[in-house]
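Risk register update: the risk of archive-format incompatibility is retired. Evidence:
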Amino acid sequence: MGAVRFARPTARYDGVLTFCRDAVGLPVLGQWRDHGGYDGLLFGLPGTPVPMGITQHGAPPLIPEPHPENRLVLCLRGAEAVEVAVRRLRELADP
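Archived output:
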C-alpha cells in the first residue's frame, strides 16, 4: 500500500502557517526550512490520514501563475464550524 500527500506552493510561508494553524486549527505535523532549497509545512487534515503540504522555494519564493483551478478549498461542517473559523480570522486580523 502506498501513501497520498499533496503540496501547494506559496510565497507567504509564515502567513499560511498562521492561517492554517491558528485560524483554521489544523495541527502542524512537520515543518522544515531550507531542505534542498525548500521550506515546508505538513498539516493534519481532520478525519483523514492524508496530510496537506505547503512548500516555498527560492529567494524570493517562486509560485506558479494564478489559475482558477489553483486553489485550496476548506469544507467546514455546519454553521458552528464556520462561526469558529470566522471568529479566529477576526481575532488574527485585529489582535
